[in-house]
Amino acid sequence: MNAWLMALVLVLTGVAVVATVVMIVRDESPPGDPYFLLLGVLLVVLLVQAVVGLVALAGTEADVDAPTFVAYLLTAVLVVPVGAALALVERSRWGSVVLLVALLTVAAMQVRLDSLWTGAGA
């Protein structure tokens, strides 16, 4: 697994989490283009991470639980657009909370991906 990609995902997720918490505190609905551009960049990085992770999994001799690893990679990609869509449908504080939960889920999945790759969580 590429540590740089994982760190980039965590940094982007952290920035999005901070922005989302600010939205929740201010009782704002999900903001416009700059915020969703950040989510789009996060999604692109997650897609790149999924491709790199699948290639690394195919070429490794390490004892990695492949089905679980692939499921985490692909689910991390799906969580962001689903959370953003739900936040757009529910244009209240609760929509922002759903988006926050989705972003925290992505961060938790990154930690789990790392533990699966290193063999600690297998």
Please outline what is shown here.
The chain is mainly alpha-helical and 122 residues long. The protein has helices at 3-25, 33-58, 66-89, 93-118.
Written description of the protein model:
The chain has helices spanning 3-25, 33-58, 66-89, 93-118. The chain is mainly alpha-helical and 122 residues long. The protein has one domain (3-118). The longest helix has 26 residues, at 33-58. It comes from Nocardioides cremeus. This is Integral membrane protein.
Shape designation:
elongated
Q: Can you summarize the main beta sheet?
A: none
Secondary structure tally: strands: 0
> Helix amount, in percent?
over 70%
Strand content: under 5%
SS content category: mainly alpha
Organism: Nocardioides cremeus
Transmembrane segments: 6-25, 37-57, 69-89, 96-113
Protein name: Integral membrane protein
Keywords: Membrane, Transmembrane, Transmembrane helix
List keywords for this structure.
elongated; single chain; mainly alpha; 122 residues; 4 helices
Topology:
Blueprint (H helix, E strand, L loop, with lengths): L2 H23 L7 H26 L7 H24 L3 H26 L4
Helix pairs in contact: 1-2, 1-4, 2-3, 3-4
